[in-house]
């Protein structure tokens, strides 16, 4: 069985997700932005073995703790897409700008592209390239859970900002309508901030997608 837990972290209340396979006790952290003791306590309390960090994109509130956890736990960093490399290079400056603990520099073990998959225990998740908020933004979709981890692409009642360097509103809308919504109306999703929703709910009622 695949299980998930949402762990809001940092002053931005960013939704880090702990994902684990109960058959193997292998776990991944999706978007560990900060609050390392809290995140690692969630792993240890469940007697899980952290196997990887998966990143949807490289903004500080999603990636700030990545370098430190990868170094101390000896785990690979999977994602985001290579278009976010300049955001990774800027993480130390982002730390200072937003008052975060100093982010350690890192290079992802693997960049991700549309059509890739990631593995956790016996479970395979699909990778969707969904640019617009950042150029290399990816989404992780679990067919087993019918659940997507969408980072800052889509929110309950809103969409990701596109006014940062590298943002593109047309790309974002295209990714939501042609890649996310294609997964099906009954798919639930964890956004980067705020409450969960379903793709059907957002397709019908999100005012930014009319």
TrEMBL record:
<dbReference type="GO" id="GO:0046872">
    <property type="term" value="F:metal ion binding"/>
</dbReference>
<keyword id="KW-0479">Metal-binding</keyword>
<protein>
    <submittedName>
        <fullName>MBL fold metallo-hydrolase</fullName>
    </submittedName>
</protein>
<dbReference type="GO" id="GO:0016787">
    <property type="term" value="F:hydrolase activity"/>
</dbReference>
<dbReference type="InterPro" id="IPR001279">
    <property type="entry name" value="Metallo-B-lactamas"/>
</dbReference>
<keyword id="KW-0862">Zinc</keyword>
<feature type="domain" description="Metallo-beta-lactamase">
    <location>
        <begin position="13"/>
        <end position="193"/>
    </location>
</feature>
<keyword id="KW-0378">Hydrolase</keyword>
<dbReference type="InterPro" id="IPR036866">
    <property type="entry name" value="RibonucZ/Hydroxyglut_hydro"/>
</dbReference>
<dbReference type="InterPro" id="IPR051453">
    <property type="entry name" value="MBL_Glyoxalase_II"/>
</dbReference>
<dbReference type="Pfam" id="PF00753">
    <property type="entry name" value="Lactamase_B"/>
</dbReference>
């Amino acid at each position: 069985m695949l299980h998930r837990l949402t762990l809001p972290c940092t002053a931005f209340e960013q939704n880090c997700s702990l994902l684990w396979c109960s058959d193997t006790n292998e776990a991944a952290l999706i978007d560990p932005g900060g609050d390392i003791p809290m995140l690692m306590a969630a792993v240890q309390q469940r007697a899980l073995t952290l196997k990887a960090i998966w990143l949807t994109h490289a903004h500080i509130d999603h990636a700030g703790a990545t370098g430190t956890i990868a170094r101390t736990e000896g785990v690979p960093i999977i994602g985001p897409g290579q278009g976010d490399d300049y955001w990774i290079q800027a993480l130390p400056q982002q730390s200072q700008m937003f008052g975060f603990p100093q982010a350690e520099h890192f290079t992802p073990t693997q960049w991700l592209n549309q059509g890739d998959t990631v593995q956790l225990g016996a479970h395979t998740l699909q990778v969707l390239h969904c640019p617009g908020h950042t150029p290399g933004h990816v989404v992780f979709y679990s067919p087993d859970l019918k659940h997507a981890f969408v980072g800052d692409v889509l929110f309950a009642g809103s969409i990701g900002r596109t006014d940062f360097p590298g943002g593109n509103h047309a790309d974002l809308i295209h990714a939501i309508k042609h890649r996310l919504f294609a997964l099906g109306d009954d798919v639930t999703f964890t956004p980067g901030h705020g409450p969960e929703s379903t793709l059907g709910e957002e397709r019908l009622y999100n005012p930014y997608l009319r």
